[in-house]
Amino acid sequence: MGLFSLKKKKTESGxxxxxxxxxxxxxxxxxxxxxxRGLPREMGHKAGAEAFRRIVECCIDRDIELVTVYAFSTExxxxxxxxxxxxxxxxxxxxxxxxxxxxxxxxxxxxxGDNSRFSPExxxxxxxxxxxxxxxxxxxxIAINYGGRDDIVYAVNxxxxxxxxxxxxxDISSHLYTSGQPDPDLIVRTGGExxxxxxxxxxxxxxxxxxxxxxxxxxSDKDVDExxxxxxxxxxxxxxxx
Length: 242
What we know:
Elements: E1 9-10, E2 16-17, E3 22-26, H1 30-36, H2 41-61, E4 66-73, H3 81-100, E5 107-112, H4 120-132, E6 138-146, H5 148-161, H6 169-173, E7 186-189, E8 208-211, H7 221-233
Parallel strand pairs: 3-4, 3-7, 4-6, 5-6, 7-8
Antiparallel strand pairs: 1-2
Helix pairs in contact: 1-2, 2-3, 3-4
């Protein structure tokens, strides 16, 4: 276990706060990390991929049930083709690595987003790693070709296809890419930006938000613990009065 404990914390009234179950990361700052070092942006993404593995393992060590990472948005296709190609190459390497030499120990993997844009070969690799990791106790969501608005449109279209004429909040929640999972308790964005950028739009309604200037490739266990300390300091009322 790490230095930070997620055991239930006593409140002033003598009760306890529920532990953090789901943490999500907007992994921002790879390009700026590379630029600061006079390196091509692709090298920043490579360093970011290593940070991704490191931080997921850190969260597992702290016994967090579910980790979600924002790997590639629906808007990221607009970036220079060389950069997109580099990111896709890293993604394929991750899939092969996960199948041959699992590094994300104890994590069952789910991919959030529209996978129709990927080649049949990549979709097959995605399906294989989902199946291979299905028995692990912790969970890892990789949001790739994902957008929060697209997620909601996907859910509504699925409900229309089922013949629904009236839709409830529960209906939408159960047809999102995150169906069956708890909403994120805490969303962490690195890189100094203060926005969610179309990430988990529906699911983030009551998430605590933590923004840090740390660039994603520099993210450390200490930075994760700082975010977790922030979370435990929050009073989560969900619209109620306490």
